[in-house]
Amino acid sequence: MTLKPWREVAVPHSDVLKGTFQQAEFAADLSRVHDKTAAAEYQDAALFFQRTFITEGMRLLLDSVVKRLAGKGGDPVIQLQTAFGGGKTHTMLAVYHLAKGTVPASSLQGVPAILESAGIVDLQPARLVVLDGIRQSPNQPAVYDGVAVKTLWGELAWQLGKAEGYDLVRDADQSGTSPGKAVLEQLLSKYAPCVILIDELVAYVRQFEEGKALSGGSFDSNLSFIQALTEALKAVPTAILLASLPESDKEAGSQRGVKALGALAHYFGRVQALWKPVSSSEAFEIVRRRLFTSIGDQLVAEDVCRAFTNLYVANAHDFPHETQEARYHDRLLSAYPIHPEVFDRLYEDWSSLDNFQRTRGVLKLMAKVIHRLWNANNTDLLIMPGSLPLYDADVRNEAIYYLPQGWDPVLEKDIDGERAETTEIERRDPRLGSVQACRRAARAIFLGSAPTNGGQVVRGIELERVVLGVAQPGQQPSLFKDALRRLGDRLQYLNSGNNRFWFDVRANLRREMEDRKRRFQDKEDVFPAIRDRLQRSITTAAFDAVHVFTPSADVPDDWMLRLVVLPADAAFSRSGQSLAIDRATEILKGRGDQPRFKQNRLLFVAADFETVSRLKDQVRSMLAWQSIVSDVRELRLNLDQLQARQAERSLGEAVDTVRRTIREAYKWLLAPAQEARPGKGVSEVRWEHFALNPGAQNFGDELDRVLKENELVINAWAPIHLAGVLRSWFWKPEQSDVGALAVWQQTCHQLYLPRLRDDRVFQNTVAAGAESRDFFGLAQGKDDDGFVGFVFGARTTPVLDGSLLLIDPVASASFANSVRERGPGAPAPSVGGGLDGPPTSAPTSTPGSDAPQPGPSSSKRRFYASTTLDPVLGKKSFNDLYDELVMLFTTKPGVRVSLRVEIEADAGSGVFDDATQRAAKENASVLKFSSAEFEE
User: Fold this and answer.
1) Mean of pLDDT values over 132-147
2) How high is the mean pLDDT of the chain?
């Protein structure tokens, strides 16, 4: 079933369509009607009642009036007290036309039912008195037939009986004193039935200064007149008074106005019946009658309202609770073609504004809205908060007229119009633009939040109510929620918190954050922040050390396996030139100005080129939020509690976003490699790249997985592979043995050799291979008789030092046979198959040292030593070490001595505080340490 838009069902009045309405036409003017100069819709009784919806309060009031005029009871005094624009003057007009009797009551729409209910067949016309406190002047008499009428009671008497009636109060009018209850009772009885309508009485009385008399009397004499009049009315059964008083002190104006309101309310309160004629629940029909001629097809309207009801029921969790009640469907029908949420926001929120008249303000605003929507061929099913054409100058000016200064740029930049950010978002995302999701959501938020202010504890409009103001049948609420998320990221004046949204004339915290983002530079701020988080997140046992954004000169050239994390400005790209490859090559080739020899001990992690810009932007956002939160805590930035909590929450979200984006960015593992064949040379360095899964739970575990699956780092090496390397690169026809330490060192140097985790892996491989006669033999050295400490095909525990030899298996078998042939007196090597004897043990040197095993004393040219010192007694131990060992060499001429100091401190389950880290780095710099780093 195709639902019809509102414009095909409801037709506005001609003045609304033409845009010729004026606020004055909405403002009922009692005096102009009494003088027969009002617009037709107010002057003509039949037309007036045709466009007037008789609310329950008005029905009860009219019932009391007709009973009073017919002498069947009713209230003698009725005070109409509502908020500014609440419809009290309109109600007085209804009484005026009903009592005047110019048009028969049977011709006034809605009146016959009232007369029937009151038991009155025919209502006789009554005399009418209209006292307008704004029109009357307390010091400028009105002249009628040459008679100067000075006071309210003089005006009352003249309107009731002309000169004859005036004669009863002439003396009191001329002297400015109240005529008293008896005279007023005589006057009312003589000209009853009569209706006295007093409008804006406070505006009249507040003009009298205390102790000062004007031609219209004094402050006290006017109060006395009101008291006497209300008492006199009780004695005349067919006389009635209706008076309007403002509801609040603010509407009363000055201090004298407040005092006058209090005094008048006191006197009226003694005899009055208090009526509040317009309730917000009845506003639907009031506005609809004034703005629309009729609903063309009621069944079509019911279909539309049923479709909205079904939408709310099917998506109950997306809409306010009241939409699930059956009576909400009735509200939709009674408000059609305007959505009830429009009325709720205007009557509940906008009516709280000082100068917004509840009925007149709604009529004027909605008349302009309907006029613009009609001319724009709006096809919404209902006129909703999201339908408001705030891009239109007339509608926009009408809306912001009631608001404080500063709203125009908010509407222009954030909410509606060709230059608004909402429009730009919809241009870029057709999914949102197809239903104007961003503009509709922004309009609904504006309508529901603009009247609120920063002093309120709870600000804004709930998410469910925003969706209520925009979603139509056939549309998914989730689309508008997505639009709200986009708006929250982009708009300058939109705020949110506790599931509520509101606009403010002050730029939101996001704008403050955006402004602060520009303070932060890549090298000074952004890269250090990324480095700190990478250092905390990369924890892996696969490497001896991790260097994050470390210059090449500070990456040691030693036997340890090291992971180098490249800075964000050296990102990797699979297409085109990659800065990551250039930077990694620089570190691989050299350590500062010196060449790097142990190139096979380095692997690299680089950021993805496509993600780096987003990462840097998000880090700037995080730093900006950090500065805002810091300024709030240090009282350098004044925010309310809600904004302060929002800043804290935004900082937490920014930190989480940066953490995720770092994982997404640093997704490339780079490994240098070379190809080489014996006798054919070595190829240029080529770079292999391997993707790390950003979604893995732990960065270190993911790194270990990629290393293992691609055999980039070998933790367990089979002897057959070691034997293959030895045959290809080390054993020669003329050289059947090679130093084991030299082989290990070459695996650290050469990129075409396997990359072992550490020397223990190599040592374990050697031990495993020694048990078999298929791979190699071992020896602890050579002398004139052959190999010393020879082992072949037997279990042993080799020591990786300068003396350990790896021997070709053919040569090993030949040497084992030669030993057997020497006889029982020869030294017995450890050989599988019956020969035994432990291998000769040699002194242990530092694994990875370049020194050959010392031979005869005359050939010993170099010395190496390492030890571990007690950190508590380190100072004394180091002095002893220097005196007893170092000075042994420094005192000899021609001996060059070098000392290297390595310090490692582990905080255990704790962490080093900032002061300790700063002091350690500063002291290390002063002491000329080449590198000093903290790691996670």
Assistant:
1) 90
2) 86
